[in-house]
Amino acid sequence: MKKRKIPMRKSVVSGEMKPKKELVRITRSKEGEVSLDPSGKLPGRGAYIALDPEEVKKSQANKILDRVLETTLTDAFYQELLEYVEHQKARKELFGNE
């Protein structure tokens, strides 16, 4: 049986290449609206960040996502992102690779 290719993406915070399933995509639409993109299919400029709460905190402290997406993000967005990442990390630990 042929082995499937795993899509890899680079985290904008750490610069590491990781499987796409271990990252979350954040998009900025043409109108300038920034949102989480768990499906990875929303149109617009995208940036990937690892499912690691430390990367989210580092991104907020150094304004990495602000620079990459060329916009200003609110603390509320970073809080939503942190909650999403913590939830997904706990879910992954609980259920494994389902």
Provide an overview of this structure.
By secondary structure, the chain is an alpha+beta fold. 38% of the residues lie in helices and 22% in strands. It is built from three helices and five strands, in the order βββββααα. The strands form two sheets. It has a three-stranded antiparallel β-sheet. It is globular. The two termini are 21 Å apart. The model has no long low-confidence stretch (mean pLDDT 93).
How would you concisely characterize the structure shown here?
With 98 residues, the chain is an alpha+beta fold. The protein has helices at 53-62, 64-69, 75-95, and strands at 8-10, 17-19, 23-28, 34-37, 45-50.
Features:
globular; alpha+beta; two-stranded antiparallel ribbon; 3 helices; three-stranded antiparallel β-sheet; 98 residues
**Global shape:** globular
In which order are the strands of the major sheet placed?
4-3-5
User: How far apart are the termini?
Assistant: 21 Å
The percent of residues in helical segments reads 25-40%
Contiguous low-pLDDT stretches (5 residues minimum) are none
Helical/strand content category: alpha+beta
Task: Note the run of SSEs as H and E.
Answer: EEEEEHHH
**Largest sheet, described in full?**
3 strands, antiparallel
**Strand residues, percent:** 15-25%
Averaged pLDDT: 93
Q: Say how many strands there are.
A: 5
Rg to the nearest angstrom? 14 Å
Annotation field: number of helices = 3
